[in-house]
Amino acid sequence: MAVLKEIISEERLRLRVEEISHEIAEGMARKDFVMVGVLKGSVVFLADLMRALHRRGLCPTVDFITISSYGDSTESSSAGKIISGLHHDVEGKVVLLVDDIADTALTLKQARDHILSMGATRAFTCVLLDKAGRRKVEFEPDFRGFAIENVFVVGYGLDAAHRHRCLPYVARLEDE
Ligand code: PRP
């Protein structure tokens, strides 16, 4: 049976999200950007991050894109599919792409290419978790919460076959 082992507590998440909002406020060099969350894993992080940004005087507009790579499996496939695109025009705008995790980075690279093909002038990327050792494409996020090892993690938006997204902390899923 699989068990959950907490690896990043609610408090560490809260503190790091505040720090990232500071890094974004300093690093984006402009206030009027569009935050684009990659559904569905980004929702919890994005919701906390947008409120942290508000505390720093930033109130970006928000949009979402859906790209699925894993389906119900724990392994990423090579071809992510854009299931639904943006609802707003990003032509001439600066975008901050937000996701819960960069693993192979196929998803974020595809999302960034898509955003730029829609005419955005710049697409910054922000991930909560970064498994840099797993890359299949070259990719370095502009903003990153935590570097993690190659373990399967759930919670704070991340799922395992649609379960555990609602956990307020990040946990690794281990066999007992
Ligand atoms: C997960 C996660 C990232 C992506 C990262 O999404 O939310 O978007 O995989 O993997 P990669 O770096 O190897 O591309 P998933 O496809 O599982 O969909 P979900 O967000 O709906 O859970």
**Number of E-type strands:** 9
Average pLDDT confidence is 91
Tell me the span between the first and last alpha carbons.
6 Å
Predict the CATH topology: Rossmann fold
* Small molecules in complex: 1-O-pyrophosphono-5-O-phosphono-alpha-D-ribofuranose
Global morphology: globular
**Which runs of at least 5 residues are low in confidence (pLDDT < 50)?**
none
Can you name the CATH architecture? 3-Layer(aba) Sandwich
In CATH's first tier, which class applies? Answer: Alpha Beta
Order of helices and strands: EHEHEEEHEEEE
Provide the number of structural domains. 1
* Biggest sheet details: 6 strands, mixed
Number of helices: 3
What percent strand?
25-35%
Indicate the radius of gyration in whole angstroms: 15 Å
Q: In what order do the strands lie side by side in the largest sheet?
A: 4-3-2-5-6-7
Tell me the structural class.
Answer: alpha/beta
Which descriptors would you attach to this protein?
176 residues, binds 1-O-pyrophosphono-5-O-phosphono-alpha-D-ribofuranose, alpha/beta, Rossmann fold, 9 strands
Your description of this structure?
This protein is α/β, with parallel strands linked by helices and 176 residues long. It has one domain: Rossmann fold (3-Layer(aba) Sandwich). The chain contains three helices and nine strands. The strands form two sheets. A six-stranded mixed sheet has the order 4-3-2-5-6-7, sandwiched between helices. Strand 5, helix 3 and strand 6 form a beta-alpha-beta unit. Helix 1 crosses helix 2. The chain is globular and about 50 Å long. The protein starts with a strand and ends with a strand. The mean pLDDT is 91. Bound molecules: 1-O-pyrophosphono-5-O-phosphono-alpha-D-ribofuranose. 1-O-pyrophosphono-5-O-phosphono-alpha-D-ribofuranose binds next to strand 2, strand 5 and helix 3.
